[in-house]
Structure formats: structure tokens, C-alpha cells
Design brief:
Four Helix Bundle (Hemerythrin (Met), subunit A); 9 helices; 61% helix
Length: 301
């Protein structure tokens, strides 16, 4: 409730000095209430009972952003006090460097504090882009709306809500947006130069968001990716088997003479038929010789 009370005091001070209409009061009060509710819920989720030193600095910035919001809404009906608007915006931008230093020196760095600081920065950039758009062109709204477009896209693509690693260049680009928009709101530069610096700021913002989106895309959960249809591995193949050799069929009359016996006959000597022996003639007196009274026969034929 401290933030809401402080916001009401600031709105009352602006009404007393430059005058605020009913719409400015309505928007300024609504902004303060939403901020207090969101901060209370954040503290409850974080298990904290009160704000740390750095969070109080960020809350001060949030109150200043509420004042800028009221001034911008009031400018729709009448010319805005540019000097006051730019001064309050500049103080809020300078305090952006203070809360981080306080958090590191006091050892109170927290996810809640970082988120609170980021949302305050994003809303200030949105409000300033709304103020500059009527003179610079409606395309300037892309600078203030890119953060919220990213949040809306993460509701459709959950992988966009993943945690991003700290990156110094991201902080530089975010701070540059507020400075460039404050300079454009002040009108201190010629119109071509104002357009040029706004284009450069938008290009840097697109590059920073594009890098974060690419980082989240590469690390999105595997279940969200479009996996290719698995292809079954080919079954192991055995060596080719040569076709069985087939014997051509031969007609029966031709095949019978060519048939070979499956078993050769065994020749037994006792079964061999020998030719008949020639008759041996009886010895005669002419074939015999005397030799000691014994008759020898000559077997040589």
C-alpha cells in the first residue's frame, strides 16, 4: 500500500502544479493499483514479507513512471508540459542504474527484483513511445509494444517463456530505448535526426529480441519440436544363395540308355571264366631225349 499512497501524493502534486484532468487521475490511480497487486503477489510467491533495499528504489521508479503516464494521458486533451515530462522520465531512467547497484552491494539480488525492474522499464518505454508516435509516426509504437508482443507470443508458444541467460547487451539496448524516446519527446533534435535515432533504436531492439528468440528456439523442449518420421532400419541381409541347379528332364526313351548303374559289380576271381586249356599231347619217342633214363617234357610252345 505504500506504493499506492505515494502515487496518489505525486498525482496530487501534479494537479496542483500543472493541473491534471480526470482521465489522468483515473489512469494514474489504476496503474498504481495494478502495480501494488502484482508486487504483492510476487512477494507472496517468493516467500518474502517485505521489499528489499533495491526493490524500494525500483518502487520509487514505478511511482515516477506513474506520473509520466498521467502526464501523457493528460496531453491528449491539451499540450503537455514537455519539460516536466522529460525531467521525470530522465530521473526514472537514471534510477534504473541505481537499483541494480544497490541489489549487488547489499546482496539482495533476486528474481522478483529483476522482474520488477524489467516491467517498470518496459512500461516507461511504452508510455514514451505513445507520446512520441503522433509526431514521429505510428511505427514508433513498435518500440514500446515489442516487449508485450513477446509476452503475448509466449502464451501461444510456451518455449518462448524459457529462462534467458544474463546478457549485458540486452540491458544496453533496453536503456537506449528510454534515452532515445526521452530525447525525441524533448524535441531537441531536428526532425530528420530524431527519425534516424528512432530507427536505429528500433533496429537494435529487433536484433536483441531476435537473438533471444533464436536462443530459445534452439533450446526448446524436444517434445515441442517437429521430429521427422522414423524410418525402420533395413533388416540384415544374408549372403545371396545361388539358385539350385536343375537337371533338364530327358524323355524316357533317351534317358534309359544313358542311365548308369548306381553300383558297380564286384569281380570275384572265382567267378571269372577262364578259357579252356589246350590239350597237352602225350609224349612221343621223338620228343623225348635220353638223359639218364628220365624223360623231360618241354613246356615251351
Amino acid at each position: 500500500m505504500i506504493g499506492l499512497s505515494a502515487q496518489l501524493v505525486v498525482l496530487a502534486a501534479l494537479t496542483a502544479t500543472v493541473g491534471l484532468g480526470g482521465a489522468a487521475w483515473l489512469v494514474g490511480t489504476g496503474y498504481a493499483m495494478v502495480t501494488c497487486v502484482a508486487l504483492s503477489r510476487g512477494l507472496h510467491r517468493a516467500g518474502a514479507s517485505r521489499l528489499g533495499p533495491a526493490d524500494r528504489v525500483t518502487l520509487t521508479r514505478a511511482v515516477l513512471v506513474g506520473a509520466v503516464t498521467a502526464l501523457v494521458v493528460d496531453s491528449f486533451g491539451r499540450p503537455a508540459p514537455v519539460g516536466l515530462l522529460v525531467t521525470v522520465s530522465a530521473v526514472a531512467l537514471l534510477l534504473d542504474a541505481v537499483d541494480g547497484q544497490v541489489a549487488r552491494r547489499t546482496g539482495t539480488v533476486s528474481a522478483l527484483g529483476a522482474r520488477f525492474d524489467m516491467e517498470v522499464d518496459a512500461f516507461l518505454i511504452l508510455v514514451l513511445s505513445v507520446h512520441v508516435a503522433p509526431t514521429a509516426g505510428g511505427w514508433v509504437l513498435a518500440i514500446g509494444g515489442m516487449r508485450y508482443a513477446f509476452v503475448a507470443a509466449s502464451a501461444v508458444l510456451p518455449w518462448l517463456s524459457g529462462s534467458l541467460p544474463p546478457r549485458f547487451w540486452r540491458k544496453v539496448v533496453a536503456a537506449a530505448q528510454g534515452v532515445v524516446l526521452a530525447v525525441a519527446a524533448a524535441g531537441v533534435l531536428p526532425e530528420p535526426w530524431t527519425t534516424l535515432v528512432l530507427v536505429v533504436a528500433l533496429a537494435l531492439l529487433v536484433e536483441s529480441f531476435g537473438r533471444d528468440v533464436a536462443w530459445l528456439w534452439r533450446r526448446r523442449p524436444a517434445s515441442r519440436r517437429a521430429l521427422p518420421t522414423p524410418v525402420a532400419a533395413p533388416a540384415p541381409t544374408s549372403p545371396p544363395v545361388p539358385p539350385a541347379r536343375t537337371v533338364p528332364k530327358v524323355p524316357a526313351p533317351v534317358a534309359e540308355p544313358l542311365a548308369l548303374p548306381t553300383r558297380l559289380p564286384v569281380v570275384v576271381p572265382s567267378t571269372v571264366a577262364l578259357p579252356p586249356l589246350l590239350p597237352v599231347p602225350a609224349p612221343t619217342p621223338a620228343m623225348a631225349t635220353r638223359s639218364g633214363g628220365t624223360v623231360h617234357s618241354d613246356w615251351r610252345l
